[in-house]
Amino acid sequence: NSGFLHIYDPDRIMTPLLRTGKRGEGKWKRISYDEATSLLAQKLRAVVERSRGEHRPE
Questions:
Q1: 56 within domain boundaries
Q2: Strand ranges (E), 1-58
Q3: Nearest to 17 by CA among 8, 2, 6, 27
Q4: What range defines the domain where residue 44 resides?
Q5: Mean pLDDT by 10 residues, the chain (58 residues)
Q6: What is the pTM of this model?
Q7: Residue 58 counted as domain residue
Q8: CA within 20 to 30 Å of 51's CA: 5, 6, 31, 41, which one?
């Protein structure tokens, strides 16, 4: 039943948020889903590029 409480919680996050301050400061900016997806893709590409040399099959 607690899962339903999250759905109807008036404080639940309804849009993507981007942290604008340091971790723990609670500073956030609303962004579009397109912007959030683009930022996520950039971060994932960077991780793949950094780890590419570490995980090559032999």
A1: no
A2: 17-19, 28-30
A3: 27
A4: 2-51
A5: 80 94 96 98 94 71
A6: 0.68
A7: no
A8: 31
